[in-house]
């Protein structure tokens, strides 16, 4: 489970006006974006034509996280603030804790796909909230010293609904809608506090499911249970014979370990020979990633129609990553058994 600083939740609970919510919503946008690089790295490590069921399952989660990023940006615009995807430190450094995370309870890196990665990292990122509550000697419930992302989002939703004005102050013309990419029931203008609460609920339910079901409102298996199904090797399906109504007894998720490129975990450009093919491919990937950030910033910065271009760059990034993953990384001319891994940092402007 992703543990976050309880002070962030307490700050939301004290909010009296839209501006009070802005810093923590910007953190939530960073968090949603920060899940994309590790998920995308695992996806890119799957060789073409191999492990395709797994590839598509992870790909769909990546697309959902892009949606969640846009929802967060719509909320910031609705609050009258500017989504700052270009702010220093917006892009997370890997390996390390995710935004809002505390300590090193969950260290997230950029690694090739493995079943262990599904269980030890991806499932923990998406894990539904079920915290232990310890009681003080006087019998009053003592909240845990950390909060969870589910609690964070619920508190944010409650704080929005408690604002004195139902209509939010932002310019509705900055709201991103994209029927060609996301249905109107998933990405919609946020004008009121009720719109905002509905959008936040969608983020939580697509990641965790509903409180009593692993299926989100669209009928899809939520991210946590999708990753669990991959780890267990079988899809989660409705099962009347199971006490919970579901079981991991559906079609197999076959996994071929030889169908994974041995990407260098947490690749660093400085570790590559600047004259090598691996360095050139890594640089190309970084340039494309920088273009993606700039295109998304333009989209959420008052030009929502630019999303088509941003999604096109996202497709380019996927292709650049697939090419990158095929490139071996030698050391002193000697094969290392590793391939180049993607680097999610802005490309230097002087190169």
TrEMBL record:
Q: Mark the transmembrane ranges.
A: none
Tell me the domain of life: Bacteria
Q: Name one Pfam family in it.
A: Ferritin-like
Q: Where is the Iminophenyl-pyruvate dimer synthase domain?
A: 25-231
Which stretch is the leader sequence?
A: none
Q: What is this protein identified as?
A: Iminophenyl-pyruvate dimer synthase domain-containing protein
Protein species of origin: Nonomuraea maheshkhaliensis
